Amino acid sequence: MSLKEHEYVRQTLERYTNCKLENFCSHVLITNFRQYVHAFAERTGGEISKNNFRIVNAPELDCTMIDFGIGSPQAALVVNGLAYLDNLKSVVMLGMCGGIDDILQVGDFVVPTAAIRGEGTSRHYLPEEFPAIPAMSVNLLCLGAVKAKKMTPRCGVVYTTDRRLWEFDETFVDYLRHQRILAVEMELATLFSVAYRYEVPIGAIMLVSDMPLQRRGIKDKRLQDRVYRDYMGLHLDIALDAVANLNSRWSEVERQLHSEW
Fold first, then answer.
1. What does the pLDDT average to over 220-228?
2. Which SS3 state, helix, strand or coil, does residue 60 take?
3. Which terminal residue of the chain has fewer beta carbons within 10 Å of its beta carbon, N or C?
4. Taking residues 145-153, what's their average pLDDT?
5. C-beta neighbour count of 134 within 10 angstroms
6. How is 153-180 classified by DSSP, letter by letter?
7. Beta pairing class for 90-99 and 109-110
8. pLDDT surpassing 60 at residue 1
9. Closest by alpha carbon to 189, among 211, 225, 159?
10. β-sheet bridge partners, residue 55
């Protein structure tokens, strides 16, 4: 007998993480960066399990972190897999973005209110006319976690592209300059779209890692190293505070989610 979709997807998630599904926690942080997974493992004492994805479970925090790699197809796969977990309560993306609006600077945190679907993967999950939006009940707690660190979270629309070297496309750069776009990145529209399709409560806390439209603003190795050194720990602090708030206020969040969906 052939596998049903939910059985196949659950097996795929287990294969890609090399982790039994019963070990996944209720709240999941997802990221693109193996450095974050190593830092999370050091902080929580958890062990890294890996195959295509890297994963660390921290049962005492009821929190799992997954590094799913880069790009929209990988983003779709991880959320599609998480949607079939029996105990899933929330997903929060910890990523980096390039700042477009000049109100931003490196080290700021963006909590996106929507993402423009400039990639191609999300069309397999939602019609083109559907917006890509997070679960606002989750995002509100992400906002609160940033504010608790005495920082001002930036909110607005981000652009998701599946073109890695877009910085050298003058037509696209001109488009970004003349729209009210806060930042640009590579996965959020897909994550939000797939999460909406499968009713996964998702939010995002994005770190501004460079200002690519400014002179000498594109992230090079030196800036990348500085971003990890100066901001990764704070990013994790904010995320874990958001997870703690989601845990303690889950009944309230769950009620709000029913009205959003």
1. 86
2. helix
3. N
4. 97
5. 26
6. -B-SEEEEES-TTGGG-HHHHHHHHTS-
7. unpaired
8. no
9. 159
10. 49, 66
Strand segments (E) across the chain: 27-31, 48-50, 54-58, 63-67, 90-99, 109-110, 114-118, 157-161, 183-185, 202-210
CA gap 154, 201 in Å, rounded = 21
Closest CA to 200 of 93, 119, 116, 94: 93
Give the closest residue to 242 by CA, choosing from 93, 87, 55, 97.
93
What is the pLDDT, as a whole number, of residue 162? 93
- Give the distance from CA 42 to its chain's centroid: 21
Q: pTM for this one?
A: 0.95
Rg (CA), the chain: 17
> How far apart are alpha carbons 97 and 1 in whole angstroms?
45
Task: Quote the pLDDT of residue 4.
Answer: 87
pLDDT(135) > 80: yes
